[in-house]
Amino acid sequence: MQHGGKTVFGAAVGILMLETQFPRIVGDMGNALSWDFPVQYRVVTGATPDKVVRNDPTELAELFIDAGRDLVRSGCDGITTNCGFLALIQDEVKQALGVPVATSSLMQVPMVQALLPAGKRVGVITISATSLSGKHLAAAGAPLDTPVIGTEGGRAMTEDILGDKLDIDFQACRLDMIDAGRAMVERHPEVGAIVLECTNMVPYARDIRRVTGLPVFSIHSFVSWFQAGLLPRGFPLELDDPRWG
Description:
Blueprint: E1 13-18, E2 39-44, H1 49-53, H2 61-74, E3 78-81, H3 90-97, E4 101-102, H4 109-113, E5 121-126, H5 134-139, E6 148-150, H6 157-162, H7 170-187, E7 191-196, H8 205-212, E8 216-217, H9 219-230
Parallel strand pairs: 1-2, 1-3, 3-4, 5-6, 5-7, 7-8
C-alpha cells in the first residue's frame, strides 16, 4: 500500500528556475526532455540571470524558498536550481525547506576531487569568471584556489545567456565552450576533471570531453545522481533463483 500526503507522485526532483525568455535546447536543465525521469518546475519570478550572476543572489533567497515550498507541497522530495551561482543560498534554502537541496553544480567539486589521483585538480568552467568568487566556491565546499575559466569575451555564450536574448546562436556557444575547455588544459595542465558551473552548458559537455580528454561533470550528472537517491531504482527479488541455495 502506498502512503499518501502528496499531490504529485513519481516526480521526486523539483527545479527552481530563474525567470528567463531565452530558448532552451535539449540538454539544458530547463528543457524537460533533458531528463530520463519526471521533474517538476517552478519559476522564481524576479530572479533574472543578471541579478543572480552579477549581483547578490542572497537578496533573492526568500523568493527561492517560497517557490521551493510550493514544490515540496506538490510532492517533490528534493530541490535543485538552474544556476551554479546559487551555491550562496544553499544553507538557507535547505534549512527552510526541510528536504535535501542541491543548489549548484559546483557542489560536485569536492566529490570529483576525491576521485582524482595525487597532483590532479578539478577545474571549473563558468559563464562569468569575473563574478564567480571565493564565496561561491567556499559555499559549494570547493577549494578557493580552484582553476576557473569563463566564457566572457566569447562569441555568444555569456552575452546571450546573461542578456536573456530571445534568439541564441547555439553553434557559437558551442565554439565558446570548446575554447574554454582548451584554455583550461593549456593554462592548468594539472587539471584532471572539469565541472561545468552553468546549467546551460550541459549540451556541450561531450564537446569539452572530446577536446580535453578529461571527465566532465555538469548539473545533469549531479541531478541524475541526486534523483537516484531520492527515488532509487527498484530491482526484482528473484528469490526462486537456484543461486540463492
